[in-house]
## 1
Amino acid sequence: MKKRIFLVMFVALLCGVMTLSAQKPFAGRIQFETTVEGSDDPNVQSALAGMTTEYLVMGNNQKIVISIQGFGQITIMNGDYNIIYHIIDISAFNMGKYYKEVKGDELKEQLSKRKIDYDYTQETKEICGYTCKKVIASETDLESDEVSKTIYWVTTDLNVGDNINFATAPGLKGFALSTETETSFGDETITMIHTATLVKADKKVKASAFYRPSDAVPYAEMPEEVKAQLGLGE
């Protein structure tokens, strides 16, 4: 009898631990590849050659790192504090690292210019072992009334925070493991497809990864010679 009671208590405890573990926010790395449909222009494909994209994800936070031949473009979206950092990393060329911060009233103003309606369909597909549902987003630019559409393939099985999409797709439920966006390239309308190729939990991902890099300086302090190298005007 005592052994049976002990066994029941052990199973109950184990189930409790598993439940707590399942509820723990996802922390890890997600790698994406970008492809293009609707264009045979070799310039389009060459622009993507050698490009890698990695997401660090934890709770409400994302850090997107795009690297092209030593040039780094980093976007940090900290949903815990509603702050976005846009970072240019050209330290590989000894030209430093520069950032722009968007938060508070500026962020509210940017978001107030957009209205997004989501159509959650019943169509699904599996990406990296996760079941994803097709969501069609219709975004209206409230200043021009122009409407653009984006298709998200969203999973709710990846345990992320409710505010994970605060900057890119406010109100979208779950995490998009694939995004399809139409855009103009010259005289063509092409579809950029951004799809996860690897989802890996990583305990080494910490909250500090989603803070502004300490070695970055504001855009405003970017030297003129660096602006000239990047082709940036005033």
Note: The chain is about 20% helix and 45% strand.
## 2
Amino acid sequence: MSEKPLVALRGIEKRFASGVRALGGLDLDVRQGEFLSLLGPSGCGKSTALRLIAGLSEPNSGAVEWRDGARPEIGFVFQEPTLMPWTSVAKNVFLPLRLQGVAWRDAASRVREALAGVGLAGFADAYPRELSGGMRMRVSIARALVTKPPLLLMDEPFAALDEITRFRLNDDLLALAAQLKTTVIFVTHSVFESVYLSSRIAVFAARPGRVTETIEISAPRVRHSDFRLAPEFSDYARRASAALDAASGARAA
């Protein structure tokens, strides 16, 4: 991993028009190639931090600093798949390329590759209404990765899924991120999901959000179900749970 972070948030303050102070003095480094989970209680500003990184919002003060001076290509997966119901799976995945001006004839092979990567090679002509919730989320992931962005932002994408589907998507996501060498920032309020997926966890305090502790997860990047049964997984989960409990009661000065 590069010594200089891919992106750094420095002294970020974010206050909404309602007066809610979402982030207060947030400092966060994102390393090239890591899988970083933002773990914290609901409403602590995790999703706000993602939107600032994506350029969908601006801080009231502080800075978002990019290693190369400019924001790179970014893929974003939201809590809901947000697919276009009137068109096919393939054309949904094609959307980012179409917005870049790429013609379908030039994009078709890239769309097929992205769908194969999420296990949906046989569903290019299906429509979102014909898919399960987990399959729709796979389409959303394929759409975010079809441009092969160096940075993928994910805002609690698996929160509404059943546990078995969630576990499978966790495994597939880890394999894809390793294969594409994509840096991932993943928002969650699940201790167990954060430990399973991450190379590092940033624990957020209750609003206004800021990082109170970071936890390095020293385990292979691609993991399997047996990791959940390992003593080290339990140790990391206990540490993350304790950090989350402490952060939930933290208050800014």
Note: DSSP finds seven helices and nine strands in the chain.
## 3
Amino acid sequence: MDYIAFIAGLPEITWDDRKLSLTVAEFRKQLKDYIGGKDERLIDLFFLPNDNAQVLRLLQKKEPDSSLTTVYPVKMLEDEILEPDKMIPSYLREFIADFKEEHLRYEVSPENVLSWMYYDYMMKADNLLVRQFAEFSMNLKNLVTALNARKYGLEVAKEVIGSNEFAVALRTSNAKDFGLTLDYPYVEKVISWMNDDNLVERERGLDLILWNFLDEAVTFEYFSLERVISYMLRLMIIERWSKMSSESGKRVFMEMIERFRRSFQFEEQFK
């Protein structure tokens, strides 16, 4: 399906943008007039992390987080936990069943198990860009996690998710670059950014790597779903940073640091 009219009407976005002329919510609302069927389900894949977080909260007997905008209504997620009805993605149903049976399939935290299953699900999608983005994103997050774990003396294998060759190398290699630079040139850039003590610049640098991947992935795509996906994901990056530039930016960024600290329990590093 071509998205000529939709794409032609989108405002131009660049890496240096700090103000939004279009929010992600507005983008999705406008897209609904042009999209449907399997294409719409592919778009939804990128917003499922909120559903993952909500499901985990519900399974842990916590109140739903009203700030999370999920693909599936909270009531549906609650009903699926009580009585599976095949209304949500298969990986979520499988995680719910495993959790209730107290038998998760990977020896990592429940959050990481769910992320692992989510990325596996994404990498089986019927769209090349979706599969490529899922693997690239997982690799990038895994590398950042492995570098942090190594720096603070944590066990890398318990933090890394996935079973591709990139994840295996992170778990098994003692090399500075985990033996990955030759096959994955961006690894050197990530290592360089992770050595930057300025957390803001570090985050910007990592996002730029992701931005460049998305830009290059659609070099020869003009009015396709792939162009729509690339635009949307880059818009999400801009929106994230525009929030950090607003009055609430300091709070948003401090919350990000707090999540980072809690995930590795670096008590002394952030006092």
Note: Residues 128-151 form the longest helix (24 residues).
